[in-house]
Here is the input.
Amino acid sequence: MSTHIRETGGSQGRGTRVLVVTLGVAVLAIGGVAAAKAGPGGPGAGNPPPSATPSATPSGPVVQPTEAPPTPEPDPSETASPPPLGPIPTITSRDPIAMPLDPVMTSLSDINLLDNAAELKARDCMRSLGFTTWTAGAIPGPADDKENDVLDYLPPADAGQTGYPSIFSDLSGETNVGAASALSQDAVRAYIGAEAQTAGGAAVPDGGCEAEGDRQVKGGTTQLPVDPRFLAGQAKFSALRDDRMQQVFAAWSACMDRKGLHYDDPLSAQTDPRWGERPSGTPAGAEEKATAAADAGCQAETNLVGTYKALEIAYQKQFLAENQADLTTALTTFKSWVSHARSIIAVN
Here is the structure.
C-alpha cells in the first residue's frame, strides 16, 4: 500500500527525480483525516501514524549540493473543480485496472533505462576529470520502484491470516550521500556538482557529472512540459481529499466502530504504531490480524477501494483533458530519450 511516484522530467539527479510517498505522507495529504481518533491505547484503540520514514545516518563525508532544490510543479488539484464521478467499480483483486493516463504514461523500466544510460555518461565525465577508477553506479540511486497505490484492495482471507502488507519493506533509508563513505570527498563533490573545480584543477560541468550524464542522454530537452507521473500522483491525493471519499471513510469508520476498533480511515489503521513499521520478514501478531480482517470486511461493505479508484479515474480524466497537448509532446520527448539511452547502453 505504499506508492512510489517516479518523476521523469527532472535533471537534478536520481535523488531528486524520485519521490517516495509513504502512507504516513498520504495521511497528511488528506488533511489529518487519517489520524486515528484520540483515546487510550490498547486493543481496539486507533493510534496516529509514524511522523516520518526512518532513514539511515550516513557514515561517510556528507556533502550538500550548492544548487537550489528544483521548483516543485504546481498542484493541478488546487485550482481545478472536483470532476464528476463516473461508474464506481467493485474491486475484488489487486489486478491493475485501465487508467486514463495510461496511453501517455512513462514506464518504470524505461525510466530505469534512462538512469542507467545517464550513469554511463556520468562515469565518462568523472574519468575525464581525473577520477579514472570511477564506475557507473558508484553512488547508487534509490531502489527499484514498484507500481503500487495508496489504497489497494485488502483481501479479507489474506488479512486475517497475514495482517497488513508491510509498509516499509522496500524503504531502507535510501540516500546517495550514505553510499559516498568509501569515495573521496573531492570525487563526490564533482559528481553532485558541489564544486566548480576539482582538487586537481579540472573544471566541473554545471550540476556535476551526474547532471552532465543526464544531459548527454536527453540532449537539448532535459525537462518534460508536464510529467504524467506527477499528474497521476496528484490524482491519487486529490481522490483521498475529495469530499465523496471522506464520506466513504466515515462509513468505513462507523463499521469499524461497531467492531470495537476506532480509526478514521484505513490509512491510520495500517500505520498504527503497534505494527505500522513491522518489517516484511516479521510475522503479524494477533491484534494486527484481527484489525486487518475487520478493516478488509468494512472496506468490502462500503466499497471503499471502488470509490477511491472511481475518483482517481475522474481526476486523471480531468488532468488529461487539461494537459493533453503537453502530455502528447512529453511522450514524444520521452521516447526520444529512451531511444538515445538504448544506443548509449548498446556501445558500453
User: Anything to note?
Assistant: The chain has one domain: 3-42+71-346.
